[in-house]
């Protein structure tokens, strides 16, 4: 009997923005809701089991049905580790996916003016070593 190998490739058709902030996740989500006119709500926690510890990363999400865009904000840094280990300089990541996520430059400008946000950077998702951690449902 011959064997088959299944190769799975993920679709990285989304933008990601790294956010540095010293505020709690719910306060940052509130500020983003107010400044970006979003409706981020706490969806659930992503639980990641590592070699030495288990970390819990809160996820906030909202959908814009008119523009068909999904915004997902999640904690990158917790007490027990990082979700994206190669982005240790960022406390949060905002993932923007959908058919019309081309306005990420406008979102970057608004993020820089948002209270509680210290720094933002549009991430090159293809160059991230831990980019597979950004693909979750």
What does this structure look like?
- The structure is a single chain.
- The protein is of the alpha+beta class and 137 residues long.
- 15% of the residues lie in helices and 36% in strands.
- The protein is built from 2 helices and 8 strands, in the order E-H-E-E-E-E-E-E-H-E.
- The chain has helices at 25-36, 104-112; strands at 14-20, 41-49, 54-64, 69-75, 77-78, 81-82, 92-98, 119-123.
- The strands form 2 sheets. Strands 2-3-4-7-1-8 form a 6-stranded antiparallel sheet, with helices on one face.
- Strand 3 and strand 4 form a beta hairpin.
- The relative contact order is 0.27.
- The mean pLDDT is 81.
* Secondary structure category: alpha+beta
Between the first and last Cα atoms, what is the distance in angstroms? 36 Å
Main β-sheet, in a few words? 6 strands, antiparallel
Mean pLDDT: 81
State the share of residues found in helices, binned by percent: 10-25%
The topology string of helices and strands comes to EHEEEEEEHE
Unreliable stretches: none
**Individual helix count:** 2
How do the strands of the widest beta sheet line up side by side? Answer: 2-3-4-7-1-8
């Amino acid at each position: 009997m011959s064997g088959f190998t299944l190769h799975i490739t993920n679709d990285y058709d989304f933008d990601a923005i790294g956010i540095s902030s010293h505020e709690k996740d719910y306060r940052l989500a509130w500020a983003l809701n107010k400044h970006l006119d979003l409706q981020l709500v706490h969806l659930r926690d992503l639980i990641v089991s590592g070699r030495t510890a288990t970390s819990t990363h809160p996820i906030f999400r909202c959908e814009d049905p008119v523009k068909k865009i999904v915004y997902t904000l999640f904690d990158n840094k917790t007490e027990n580790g990082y979700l994206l280990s190669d982005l240790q300089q960022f406390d949060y990541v905002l993932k923007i996916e959908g058919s019309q996520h081309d306005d990420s430059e406008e979102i970057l400008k608004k993020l820089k003016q948002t209270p509680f946000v210290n720094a933002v950077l549009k991430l090159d998702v293809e160059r991230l070593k831990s980019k597979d951690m950004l693909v979750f449902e």
